[in-house]
Give the backbone structure.
Amino acid sequence: MAVNEALRRQYLQYMGITSWQKRSVVPTDTPREVVAELVEVSETVEADAAAVVPDVHKLDWPALTESILSCRRCELHSKRKQAVVGVGDHNADWMFVGEAPGAEEDRQGEPFVGPAGKLLNAMLFALGLKRADVYIANVLKCRPPQNRDPQANEVEQCEPYLLRQIELIQPHVIVALGRHAAHSLLKTDKALNKMRGEKMLYHDIPTVVTYHPAYLLRNPADKAKAWQDLCLAKGIVEVS
Ligand code: URA
């Protein structure tokens, strides 16, 4: 079964529709106004189905990926080139969570491939890791215009996808890159400096908060503190 068809069936099942029939052919003598109305109703039903996020906790990777790529739950979908699902090992010990795709990520469909991504790669290298060894994702899967901060409703609509990714991967440590990732995961509005430097918990998964690589590019003096945070995370993985 094609992924789209599988997903459509899942949507219908989650909506409580367990049996369906192919749409009957409209008789040729049906008045034009009635046909127009039928088309409008069927288009609305299809649009509503696309806006529904099924219970993501039941989605496997292919269905989750398809669900993210076709998501229209918030307005960001209308401006994106593509949604950015995430990249890396689905069984990784390490998971890195950023804020949202930027222009380059929106173009390439992969998180952290712009300047901040180059620094993230260097941070991974210093830890003895490659991108393929870890999983990298963002809180928002679509690029906010002009890279503005994520809005609360966008986080709320998109969050189930990240949570399902974490649930499927079950990483030994999550590294929250920047305050947006930390606030979204840890449900707090504390300042980043009040969260970094200690082990936090996201649903029993050890979580370390550190600076966002884009911030570190502007404030290189804080790289030493980010390195301490990464060493804390490495220590957690080593004993897990
Ligand atoms: N910044 C992020 O938070 N995520 C990306 O994917 C790229 C830049």
Q: What stands out?
A: DSSP finds ten helices and six strands in the chain. The pocket of uracil is lined by residues 98-102, 105, 111-112, 114, 116, 138, 214 (CB under 6 Å). Residues 14-22 have pLDDT under 50 and may be disordered.
